[in-house]
Design a protein that fits this description.
This protein is mainly alpha-helical and 115 residues long. It has one domain: Four Helix Bundle (Hemerythrin (Met), subunit A) (Up-down Bundle), CATH 1.20.120. The chain has 5 helices and no strands. Helix 2 (18-44) runs antiparallel to helix 3, helix 2 runs antiparallel to helix 5 and helix 4 packs antiparallel against helix 5.
């Protein structure tokens, strides 16, 4: 199974400081599940402006964690919410984002426990 996260950028950004890497990953692990839950809620009530903002905010966090596939899904959600196009596809896109992120949370916890 391929990994959903890659801490190469974060390791470079922190100059391989394991304490900083742990801090950033833990911040992500604390905020991302809440953000994802919020996005699921926004989708369920068709709050497109809020969903757009949530997806936009999540992109940089996903980039820091090296989660390219998840970042692309967030971009799709942001664009679709903003333009209000392909809204019928958003449930599947968000479901895929949920799956990737749930697996990535496990990976990231494992990575930082190994530091």
């Amino acid at each position: 199974m391929s990994k959903h996260s890659d801490l190469t950028f974060l390791k470079s950004f922190t100059k391989d400081d394991s304490a900083k890497i742990s801090k950033y990953v833990n911040m992500f692990l604390d905020s991302a599940p809440k953000a994802l839950e919020q996005m699921n809620q926004q989708l369920s009530v068709a709050d497109w402006p809020s969903l757009k903002i949530s997806a936009h905010s999540m992109k940089s966090q996903l980039r820091y964690m090296g989660m390219a596939a998840a970042e692309q899904l967030a971009i799709t959600i942001e664009r679709s919410s903003s333009e209000q196009t392909a809204l019928d596809q958003l449930p599947q896109v968000l479901t895929k984002l949920n799956e990737i992120m749930t697996e990535a949370f496990v990976e990231l916890k494992s990575e930082i426990s190994a530091l």
